[in-house]
């Protein structure tokens, strides 16, 4: 016989978002405390290659949520900034976080176990090992609960609640039921991961991003006293002989100091693979939303993991949602919840959109194979070499300390113009004699002028659609969007003339 269990809130998935949300909702000041069920399909320590570097903006969100202690006792490594290594030139540039801020890197499973323990301790939260199989709807198609296989029980159980929150991660089973076609994600590439033992990084305590010729970027960061994570971006189709491909084409391009540990790990260990997906967020409070259910975390919004922003976005989403949702006395009042979701969508935009756009734009530059993107990639590296605000601005954005799409747009297009300047003014290999370097001659200017137009156009088509998707498409009434599109087309037409 199936049992029924009734709560105020059901949360599907005890990962980063689900645990933080359960803990924060339980601690929200309310006249009547909430009864929350946190349903997780496997309570054993997860062993995954995701969510291992937390940006300073994520650490601050944990503090806002009263969860900073989850970073303790897990042998987490401090992260003081980034080091970008350009394999083509064998050069590194140091990009420290601003103002002495720090991120942390760790084994993902250890963080999750601490988060689950914190959720379990919170008043009114029940953590249940159960795999959710269906959303339960009433006659009006409002979600009123879930059905789940509970560990140790033969029959499926129905859980009911005023509100269901889905936080079941990147492979969400319920995304399309809630979002419809808007829930279709795009996979840009895969990350291949292994753990290196006793690896030496070019700059200690700095996440390393390696720009590789003919392949996507490679990330390296220490995740405990002895362990270093390597994530190698591989575009589709993933080669059948992956180990051979990495050992032959990628490992020799990595910084010399890391190569012995990389070769050892690739030869001896099992390679793990995860898709790198992109899913812009869509509003959940509008008339097309499914009543009674809300998505949060990767089930709702994903970006490229190159910039390690997923947990930061998820935690900041929780931190901005809970004060709004916690104030709703009757969570069964969907009209009131809808209003909250609209305000939440607007409140989260600056941080989430900045991180999301940056991750994909940077990936397009760093994973470049087209010649125009190659120019932008070189320009970006040289922009960082300028130091000062050319480092401080971008790293403040990356670390989620400066949640500003305007600042991101400013630096992105400064990089594009600087890349064009570099093309005209910096020495480069002379065609036909790769060992000789020379500044382009005046005779080459017509070609470079044409290339500049292509580079600028490429910058626009990399950045424009991301900005449109994240900032405009769901933020404005469609008539204003249409006017903006027509205005943009007209401006482009007059510029071309
Ligand atoms: C290769 C890779 C590397 C990444 N590296 C970083 C990084 O360094 N830094 C960073 O900030 N972000 C990183 N991310 C992104 C980050 O992992 C996610 O943004 C983050 O984990 C999202 O949290 P979540 O709670 O939404 O999902 P998850 O943390 O994935 O949690 C989902 C939970 O739901 C459970 N679940 C799923 N289905 C069900 C079901 N039917 N019933 C019950 N439970 C269920 C799962 O078991 C899991 O515990 C990376 C992503 C990838 C792909």
UniProtKB/TrEMBL annotation:
Main location, first listed in the record: endoplasmic reticulum
Essential cofactor(s): FAD
Domain Squalene epoxidase: 161-426
Protein name as catalogued: Squalene monooxygenase
Residues spanning the signal sequence: none
Record carries keyword Transmembrane helix: no
Membrane topology designation: Multi-pass membrane protein
Family label: Belongs to the squalene monooxygenase family.
PANTHER family per record: SQUALENE MONOOXYGENASE (PTHR10835:SF0)
One Pfam family matching this protein: SE
């Amino acid at each position: 016989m199936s049992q029924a269990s009734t709560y105020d809130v059901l949360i599907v998935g005890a990962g980063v978002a689900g645990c933080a949300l359960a803990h924060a909702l339980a601690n929200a000041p309310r006249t009547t405390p909430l009864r929350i069920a946190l349903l997780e399909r496997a309570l054993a320590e997860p062993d995954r290659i995701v969510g291992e570097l937390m940006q300073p903006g994520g650490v601050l969100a944990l503090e806002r949520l009263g969860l900073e202690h989850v970073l303790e006792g897990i042998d987490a490594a401090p992260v003081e900034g980034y080091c970008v290594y350009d394999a083509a030139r064998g050069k590194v540039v140091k990009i420290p976080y601003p103002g002495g801020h720090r991120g942390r890197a760790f084994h993902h499973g250890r963080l999750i176990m601490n988060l689950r323990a914190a959720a379990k301790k919170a008043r009114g939260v029940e953590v249940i090992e159960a795999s959710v199989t269906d959303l339960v709807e009433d006659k009006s198609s409002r979600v009123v609960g879930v059905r789940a296989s509970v560990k140790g029980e033969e029959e499926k159980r129905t859980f009911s609640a005023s509100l269901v929150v889905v936080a079941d991660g990147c492979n969400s089973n319920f995304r399309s039921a809630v979002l419809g076609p808007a829930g279709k994600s795009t996979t840009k590439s895969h990350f291949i991961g292994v753990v290196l033992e006793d690896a030496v990084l070019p700059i200690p305590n700095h996440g390393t991003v390696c720009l590789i010729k003919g392949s996507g970027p490679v990330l390296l960061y220490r995740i405990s006293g002895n362990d270093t994570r390597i994530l190698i971006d591989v575009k589709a189709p993933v080669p059948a002989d992956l180990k051979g491909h990495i050992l032959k084409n990628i490992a020799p391009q990595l910084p010399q100091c890391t190569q012995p540990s990389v070769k050892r790990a690739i030869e001896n260990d099992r390679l793990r693979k995860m898709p790198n997906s992109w899913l812009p967020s869509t509003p959940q409070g509008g008339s097309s939303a499914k009543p009674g259910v809300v998505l949060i975390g990767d089930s709702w919004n994903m970006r490229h993991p190159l910039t390690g922003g997923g947990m930061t976005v998820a935690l900041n989403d929780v931190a901005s949602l809970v004060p709004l949702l916690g104030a709703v006395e009757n969570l069964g009042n969907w009209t009131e919840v809808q209003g909250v979701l609209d305000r939440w969508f607007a409140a989260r935009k600056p941080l989430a959109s900045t991180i999301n756009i940056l991750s994909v734009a940077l990936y397009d530059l760093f994973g470049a194979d087209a010649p125009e993107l190659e120019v932008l990639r070189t320009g970006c590296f040289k922009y960082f070499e300028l130091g000062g605000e050319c480092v401080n601005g971008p790293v403040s954005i990356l670390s989620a300390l400066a949640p500003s799409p305007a600042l991101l747009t400013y630096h992105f297009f400064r990089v594009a113009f600087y890349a064009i300047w570099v093309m005209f003014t910096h020495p480069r290999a002379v065609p036909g004699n790769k060992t000789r370097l020379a500044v382009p001659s005046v005779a080459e200017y017509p070609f470079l002028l044409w290339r500049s137009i292509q580079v600028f156009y490429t910058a626009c088509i990399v950045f424009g659609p991301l900005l449109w998707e994240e900032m405009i498409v769901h933020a404005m009434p469609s008539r204003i969007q249409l006017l903006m599109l027509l205005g943009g087309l007209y401006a482009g037409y007059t510029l071309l003339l």
